[in-house]
Amino acid sequence: MLLRRGNKALGLTEPGRIVLERASRIIMEARELKTVGDELRSESDGKLVIATTQYHARYTLLPAIRRFRLLHPHVSFSILSVDPSSAARLVKTGDADFGLSGEPPEESRGLVTYPCFEVRRLVIVPRGHPLTKARRLSLQLLAKYPLIVYDRRLSGGAQVLRTFEQKGLKPEIALSAIDGEVLKAYVAAGLGIGIIQHLAYDPVTDTRIVALDPGNLFAPTTAYITLRAGALLRPLHATSCACWHRSCRSEPAP
User: Fold this and answer.
1) Is the pLDDT of residue 56 over 70?
2) Which of 15, 83, 223, 251 is most deeply buried (CB count within 10 A of its CB)?
3) DSSP string across 136-186
4) Tens digits of per-residue pLDDT, 154-188?
5) Cα(124)–Cα(210) distance, rounded to whole angstroms?
6) Domains 43-118+222-249 and 121-219 share a fold
């Protein structure tokens, strides 16, 4: 079962890998059956574990969970805020019921991924900024100002920066971060202009900044729901995915 060099184990043989995969599958299926049994014996409606990025944990899930709990008021939630690859891994090992992220998993074996909704971009500026008087935004115009953007390691940040690069533009990056609230705070402080997802902007609470529609300058990205292939889906899974889709699809534009 093990590849060896002398007394040192180097890894699994092909038969060993097959045995490990099947054993892991048996353990996960036994865990699922136990979970279903526990839920049937208890008075609660169970628990949902969601592996997702910080953006979706902060902005996307709130309206969906609010809608979901109207149907299942006794369900408890656990939100694991991780990067997309970690979300996929948690789903694959059975440590999360499903994943929600802005990119499909790189390693899709053993997983099923569905497109859920699209995420648009907004340009945010401090109140009184010259761009608020611009008739139309362009990448060349935006590149004249220091940018505050998502970290390049995130799919959203990489896509925005790649959009400028494809036009031969190299804007000054004043700040990059992984949290939308951080981006908005630094824009409000006047350190630059920001590019964020539309759900991260709230016209009621974000009174120190103004959101501008960039039109089609930045292509929307797709959010994906990831499930484990062959997993025992409880009714909660179907309801939760439907709530996610309806809530995000009907989200009013700012």
Assistant:
1) yes
2) 223
3) S--HHHHTTS-EEEE-TTSHHHHHHHHHHHHTT----EEEEES-HHHHHHH
4) 777 888 999 999 999 999 999 999 889 999 999 99
5) 6
6) yes
Q: What are the two backbone dihedrals, phi and then psi, of residue 18, each rounded to the nearest 5 degrees?
A: -65, -45
CA 14/CA 238 separation, integer angstroms: 36
How distant, in Å, are the alpha carbons of 48, 98, 104, 127, 175 from that of 223? 19, 13, 8, 30, 25
Tell me the CATH number of domain 121-219, given options 3.40.190.10, 1.10.287.110, 3.40.50.1010, 1.10.8.100: 3.40.190.10
In sign, the C-alpha dihedral spanning 18, 24, 28, 30 is positive
The verdict on domain 43-118+222-249 having CATH code 3.30.470.20 is: no
Q: Whole-model pTM?
A: 0.70
